[in-house]
Design goal:
Distance between the termini: 28 Å
Radius of gyration: 19 Å
Helix content: under 10%
Number of helices: 3
Largest sheet: 6 strands, mixed
Oligomer: single chain
Number of strands: 20
Order of helices and strands: HHEEEEEEEEHEEEEEEEEEEEE
Length: 327
């Protein structure tokens, strides 16, 4: 399972690999400045780059949260949150960077600040059941919103807070083709889901980090490769999603059924401070590791430290602190 646990270091790699925001070119040779002697810039000109994933052919894909829309587009009261179709997915493959999908939902403050859009991306196994709502192959992308899903209608933004599928044909399309809304689709409405029979009164949702949990059958092990030549058939693939607003870890099965595995604790320092889980990986022990970005206050001596939690993959999915003290 080294390919999953390796995502733990990708946040640090992202700082070196992607520099934004900016307007990404459709297809270009890499040309970006070196920011430190031991850092190599591999992609540039991205719009609020977030999650990364390596595909089965060695390509690197980046989810771009975008910059919302212009002030004359659908906005919340006062024009602080504006909706647009500026989210995207870009690819680095064979030494060339290009945007492969554009027009994904995005919501942000003026000039792209605090963008909510495509937050993370994960490659979906080609051996998945082709009859499932998640399809067979391609990539899955979380699109955030940080709001109650009932607000989507008035602003004409029905696809915020959903899980999208981008097929292989789009991910590896030739340089002359840019997918603009015609070759990807939402497959699961994460924001609308509520546990039954005890719905959560906090309906604000922001689907953020995600990872595929591939439990190979046949040899009982994951060989750590992503070249499509796994020895076992990945019949038990499920998706893990961290909801940064609800402080949940969710599991989504191939049929699109959602279940809640964990709730992460708030801190109480004169006011309640949310956990805000933003990343999740599968560890070498098979358990799930979730990183948080503790909420308000965002800086200063009163800011509580952030932690990494271990969530047991087996029921009852016990939550324990794995590491703490991050700021």
């Amino acid at each position: 399972m080294t390919k999953h646990f390796g995502r733990m270091v990708m946040a640090a790699f992202a700082l070196a690999a992607v520099v934004g925001p900016g307007a990404a070119a459709k297809d270009k040779d890499l040309a970006c400045s070196v920011v430190a002697p031991n850092v190599t810039c591999v992609m540039t000109g991205l719009d609020n780059p977030r999650g990364l994933a390596f595909g089965p052919r060695g390509a690197l894909f980046v989810a771009e949260a975008g910059r919302g829309g212009a002030i004359d587009k659908p906005c919340s009261t006062g024009g602080f949150n504006c909706y647009g179709l500026s989210g995207a997915v870009s690819r680095l493959w064979q030494g060339r960077q290009r945007r492969v999908a554009s027009g994904l939902p995005s919501l942000s403050f003026t000039q792209g600040a605090s963008a909510r859009g495509p937050h993370d991306i994960a490659m979906w196994s080609r051996k998945a059941d082709p009859s499932s709502v998640l399809g067979a192959g391609g990539a899955l992308v979380t699109v955030g919103m940080e709001a109650d899903p009932v607000t989507r209608g008035p602003l004409g933004r029905p696809d915020l807070g959903k899980l999208f599928r981008v097929p292989d044909s789009t991910l590896y399309a030739p340089s002359s083709h840019l997918c603009e809304q015609d070759c990807y689709a939402p497959v699961v409405d994460v924001a609308a889901w509520q546990p039954v029979p005890n719905p959560d009164p906090n309906r604000e949702s922001d689907p953020y980090g995600l990872v595929v949990d591939s439990r190979a059958q046949g040899n009982g092990e994951d060989d750590g490769e992503e070249d499509g030549d796994d020895h076992g058939e990945h019949l038990d693939d499920t998706l893990l999603v961290a909801d940064a607003s609800r402080n949940w870890l969710l599991r989504i099965d191939p049929q699109g059924q959602i279940s809640r595995l964990a709730v992460f604790p708030s801190r109480f320092q004169k006011r309640s401070t949310d956990s805000v889980p933003t990343s999740v990986v599968v560890g070498p022990d098979g358990d799930y590791y979730v990183g948080e970005l503790v909420g308000i206050p965002f800086s200063g001596p009163k800011r509580p430290p952030s932690s990494i939690y271990r969530v047991a993959a087996a029921e009852p999915h016990d939550v324990t602190v794995f590491l703490t003290g991050f700021n």
